[in-house]
Amino acid sequence: MNEHSTDWWKKAVVYQIYPQSFKDSNGDGIGDINGIREKLPYLKELGIDVIWLNPIYQSPMVDNGYDVSDYYAIQAEFGTMADFEAMLSEAHALGLKLIMDLVVCASSSEHQWFQESKKSKNNPYSDFYIWKDPKADGSAPNNWGSIFGAGSCWEYVPERGQYYLHLFATEMPDLNWDNPELRQEVYKNMRFWLDMGIDGFRLDSISLISKKLEFPDNPAAVEGEFGSPYFGASNGPRVHEFLQEMNREVLSHYDVMTVGEATRTPVEEAVKYCEPSRHELNMIFQFDHMHVDYGEYGRYSDLRFKLSDLKSSMVKWQTALSGRGWNSLYWDNHDQPRVVSRFGNERPEFRELSAKMLATVLHFQQGTPYIFQGEEIGMTNAKFDNIEDYRDLEAHNMYRKFQGLGLSEKETLRYLNYKSRDNARTPMQWSGEDKAGFTAAESWIALNPNYKEINVSSALADKNSVFYYYQELIRLRKELEVMIDGTFEMVNPEDSDVFSYIRHREGEKLLVIASFSDKKISFELPDNLRIKKQQKIIGNYDDEVKMKGQELYLRPYEALVYWLK
Ligand code: GLC
Ligand code: CA
After folding, report:
1. Inside any domain, residue 174
2. Ligand 1: does its nearest atom lie under 6 Å from the Cβ of 330?
3. Mean pLDDT of residues grouped by 10 in the chain (565 residues)?
4. Are the CB atoms for 464 and 438 separated by under 8 Å?
């Protein structure tokens, strides 16, 4: 096994690009690879190290590219393979690495494997997917319901007289990882991209690849309703075996980084994915802190989070993985609403302050930080007030579901306003000019109308902008070892408005203080912690905070980081 000398990904900051919405270079309203190439210098200026690119493979785009119909081809609207190779070498020339999404929990139903598989029970691809006989009465094999909220996880195919499993959309049949031939096909594809020179993978839905082979009904489901399929698919019986095989056969032969998307993975299980001695992945995306504002209908809710929940969930991960695995640190991605709107405050007087505060809380924790496009300028939720403006199939499924439950239009849209994935997917706001400098045409999804105020060109022109604050955080990470491997310890864990912690490493000790309140509040430091204003490392107000003894008078959303003696 190759042992690679550096864990470079521990020091890296990753920037996530959602290609559809990043930059359109050819005026068709859809972002593309050549658009990304134009903006590489911008990313270099921000200071990030790695780009994570959402899927750009050939796809019917039912789920914006997560339904792949050819893992070796680039979707035409994004460009060509030559464009891709040019992007990769230009990124490398700038010292930027690039990781791709590996989407192998399911494929598109238009993938040639599925087209063959569905024909019969005995062709070379028959077992590439998960097929089950109907129950005696002809109904689906069990009560699992699709994660996207559109009915059963099973779809009947008359040609085979069987049902196939799809955890997500009907057009996304789950691949059968229990079939070794399928696994070899996946590894072959990984080598194809790795040999081209990419620097790793984000492994989509990877905690869901191994299913309980008895396919039991979910006993928690209400009679006559669908049950969550996570129960039969999350962290399934062979998932670690599969990842160890993948590591042995592919990953260990390259000096690359891996991050697995691991929905519904408790921290004890997470360690199994990322403890180095197990040779699986470098880190996972966990979701505990994304669950703090779930409501009666799950994710789609208008509930506001409680800081105590957010703190305890983050602290749990900081503590449990310390010295064992490695955390990924994120607020935002293409599946989540915008963090300023969610955990901060989008009102004009607080938007930038709270964006900087949230960035501080995250970037000083132990782990690899991920920035989602637009986060670095403090973009906010789009809050479309008309269902027609939503593009995400999940938003439309939820809309139908809520209408079916008898919720009013207003209430339904309120939930989508808060939580729809489209909040993250509106085009990147490059300038205050027409179409936000994203495209020359009509964009594939509406722009957030606030692009005139919130955009890259005004951020670059303002030395106090959120952009430069992120730039400084990234720079500090390169300079301060304690940000990488210092231990983590909470300060005043019970405080209802302030998230405060210490990072500590061989004689270096720093203190992070972050207020989540929109009011001026007092914060009392424990007696053993002394700070001096000369020892401030970063903060989001220009002038000094007022202090009296151990008492600090924090202004709304104030964030402060100090060296401790
Ligand atoms: C992951 C992706 C999400 C996609 C789903 C199905 O959760 O992040 O965007 O819809 O997998 O592939
Ligand atoms: Ca385009």
Report:
1. no
2. no
3. 67 98 98 98 98 98 98 98 98 98 98 98 97 97 93 97 98 98 98 98 98 96 93 97 98 98 96 97 98 96 97 98 96 98 98 99 98 98 96 96 96 97 98 98 97 98 98 97 97 98 95 98 96 94 96 98 93
4. no
Q: Specify the pLDDT at position 2.
A: 40
CA 263 to ligand 1: nearest atom: 7
Q: Which pair of tokens denotes residue 373?
A: 């496009």
Is there a single domain that holds both residue 88 and residue 190?
yes
Eight-state DSSP code of residue 482: H
CB of 335 closer than 6 angstroms to any ligand 1 atom: yes
Question: What ligand has the least distance to the C-alpha of 438?
Answer: 2
Pocket test of ligand 1: the residue of 335, 420, 421 to mutate, having most ligand atoms within 8 Å of its CB, is 335
Predicted confidence at residue 6, as pLDDT, reads 73
Residue 117 forms part of a structural domain? no
- pLDDT for 200 equals 98
Residue nearest to atom 9 of ligand 1 (CA): 335
Q: Best of 204, 206, 372, 391 to mutate for ligand 1, by most ligand atoms within 8 A of CB?
A: 204
Please report whether residue 3 resides in a domain: no
382 in the same domain as 422: yes
For 522-533, give one letter per residue: b (16+ CB within 10 A) or e. ebebeeebebee
Question: What's the confidence (pLDDT) of residue 1?
Answer: 35
Output the pTM of the full model: 0.97
In terms of Cα–Cα distance, which of 392, 394, 406, 396 is closest to 147?
394
d(CA 296, CA 314): 23
Q: What is the pLDDT of residue 3?
A: 44
- Domain of 251, CATH number, reads 3.20.20.80
Given 452, 473, 494, the domain boundary residue is 473
The domain that holds 529 is classified in CATH as 2.60.40.1180
Count of beta carbons in the 10 Å neighbourhood of residue 89: 11
Query: Both 418 and 281 in a single domain?
Result: yes
Nearest CA to 10 out of 46, 40, 49 is that of 49
Q: Whose CA is nearest to atom 4 of ligand 1?
A: 66
Query: Which atom number of ligand 1 is nearest to the Cα of residue 421?
Result: 9
- The parent domain of residue 517 ranges over 484-563
